[in-house]
TrEMBL record:
InterPro entries: CdaR_GGDEF, CheY-like_superfamily, Homeodomain-like_sf, HTH_AraC, Sig_transdc_resp-reg_receiver, Tscrpt_reg_AraC-type_HTH. The keyword Protein transport does not apply. This is Response regulator. Residues 2-119 form the Response regulatory domain.
């Protein structure tokens, strides 16, 4: 189909070329005219099927051009684009055979609808039904994409002004909820892997089918759109007349079952509390995400409702967090000293962290937090461009909760890291490692032993002793003893504890042995030290 654009403003020509996917539709823009006289010449030369024209132009205005067009016998459909909203202008245009009349500034949704209607009529007798369906589908996809873009901005807090949200929704023919509503996030699991395995990478077909299922289940009381910031997520804005989000559970269970059966794609669903103002769309979406991340990764529950009270309860350190903390320590050990005796230890630890039994019972938010902490730890390490790209992929995969893919990426990064630093690691000072060891000793000085410390930091015992001595100028046992004695002196000076009680509190079960060590360290017995300290305080 041939199209002619007529307008004296070059910006309008540029806008129309950007808004409409002409080539994808199989349409050809045969010319650009900037006044009615040029439009006449181009019309005679190219015989366009569709003409988009302004009304006010130099030499010959739009009404004059349309009058000529009517007399010429040309059957082109005309859509008028004008900044004039007065009745007389529109009446004159329609009397001259205008198919539609749109006001500037041009709204994408209105133009897409007008083009769809005009093209359908133009080709009714010249195109096959399949061709007409294809063109309407492309135009419909354009409008749907504009709606998705707008709603994605709204839930992402890019749009917060309520009046602006309402106005833009009207332009895009979206019916916003008038009373209460909830945001429902539907996230598909193992999305990229399943997309390749089941759909051969055809995202368009999958998105089309998923959207239809959600619209059918939620009916007219919901807005259904794809979150363009997440490839695996749709969002429903569901009207709630009763203001009770949990009453939707039967409907959501049915939706989840149909998605699983119809698309062969597992999903999880997070639901916000009820909101009244449309300006709270971003807050509602945020609550749906919090609800999603409260779900257990390997649990049976797949629908979560946001609970403000439970969300505010602080959580303790999980097994997952402790495991990833150990992995971070191994990375530091490897990076700073090269003293990890067997690189397979790190690989095995990562494998353990991703094992089903380890993940079972861990929430999405806990897993993401533990992984994010590790990424922040290794992010400052020196790395080449390939490693940096790979680490950025790890970050994105963590946010998308692609657990198997995250494991694959992290293992690749670890192998590159070990290969790149194989020689350079040997010359590192090891200070961060020693600081970590000293912190560990400080926290466990009552019970820590050389074997425990060496095992905790994955070091050969002899190497551990040598490294510690070189970095601190004292042996491991001297450091532990000094620490215990300093604590003992504070207890003797500032409490009425018996000597045997002080001994137990700093790690000695034998009071006599404690007294011998204390005398060697301070030059006096514990009781004498307390007396001397007391006398000095009295004199002061």
């Amino acid at each position: 189909m041939r199209v002619l654009i007529v307008d004296d403003e070059s910006a309008v020509h540029e806008q129309l070329m950007t808004l409409i996917p002409w080539e994808e539709l199989g349409w050809e823009v045969v010319g650009h005219a900037y006044n009615g006289e040029d439009a006449k010449k181009l019309t005679e030369t190219y015989r366009p099927n569709l003409i988009l024209t302004d009304l006010k132009m130099p030499l010959l205005d739009g009404l004059g051009f349309m009058s000529w067009l009517e007399k010429s016998g040309n059957a082109a459909k005309v859509i008028v684009l004008s900044g004039y909203g007065e009745f007389e202008y529109s009446r004159s245009a329609f009397l001259l055979g205008a198919y539609d009349y749109l006001l500037k500034p041009i709204q994408e949704s209105e133009l897409l609808v007008a083009l769809g209607k005009a093209v359908d009529q133009i080709r009714r007798d010249t195109l096959s039904q399949s061709d007409r369906i294809n063109e309407k589908a492309v135009l419909g996809e354009g409008l749907t994409l504009k709606q998705d873009e707008f709603l994605t901005q709204a839930i992402g807090a890019s749009l917060t002004d309520e009046n602006e949200i309402v106005v833009q929704a009207e332009r895009l023919m979206l019916r916003l909820p008038e009373n209460g509503y909830a945001a429902i996030a539907v996230r598909f699991l193992d999305f990229e892997e399943q997309m390749q395995a089941r759909y051969e990478g055809d995202r368009t077909a999958f998105y089309f089918a998923a959207r239809n299922i959600m619209r059918e289940i939620s009916r007219s009381s919901s807005l259904v759109f794809r979150n363009l910031r997440q490839s695996n997520e749709f969002v429903l804005i569901k009207s709630l007349s009763d203001k009770k989000a949990n009453l939707m559970e039967p409907m959501l269970s049915k939706l989840q079952r149909l998605l699983d059966e119809g698309l062969k794609m597992r999903s999880v669903i997070g639901v916000s509390t009820c909101k009244q103002r449309i300006s709270k769309l971003a807050a509602a979406y945020s609550e749906s995400q919090i609800a999603l991340e409260s779900l257990k990764i390997a649990g049976d529950l797949k629908i979560a409702f946001h609970d403000p009270l439970s969300a505010s309860i602080p959580k303790g350190t999980s097994t997952m967090e402790m495991l990833w903390s150990d992995i971070g320590l191994l990375f530091d050990l490897l990076a700073e000293t090269g003293s990890l005796r067997d690189n397979d230890k790190l690989i095995a630890k990562i494998e353990q962290a991703f094992h089903e039994k380890t993940i079972e019972g861990t929430s999405v938010s806990e897993w993401k937090q533990a992984m994010s902490d590790l990424v922040r730890k290794i992010d400052p390490y020196p790395m080449n461009e390939d490693m940096r790209i790979l680490l950025n992929e790890v970050k994105a995969s963590v946010q998308a909760v692609r657990i198997p893919y995250t494991k694959e990426l992290l293992l690749k990064w670890t192998e590159l890291f070990m290969a790149r630093n194989a020689d350079a690691m040997k010359s590192k000072s090891g200070k961060p490692l020693i600081d970590a060891i000293k912190k560990y000793i400080d926290e466990n000085y009552k019970t820590v032993s050389l074997d425990q410390a060496a095992e905790r930091f994955y070091l050969n015992k002899n190497y551990f002793c040598s490294l510690f001595k070189n970095m601190t100028d004292v042996s491991f046992m001297e450091y532990v003893t000094d620490l215990r004695m300093e604590h003992a002196k504070r207890l003797l000076a500032n409490s009425n504890l018996k000597t045997y009680e002080v001994a137990e509190m700093v790690g000695y079960s034998d009071q006599r042995y404690f007294s011998q060590v204390f005398r060697k360290h301070t030059g006096t017995q514990p009781t004498q030290y307390r007396q001397n300290k007391s006398n000095k305080d009295d004199q002061a």
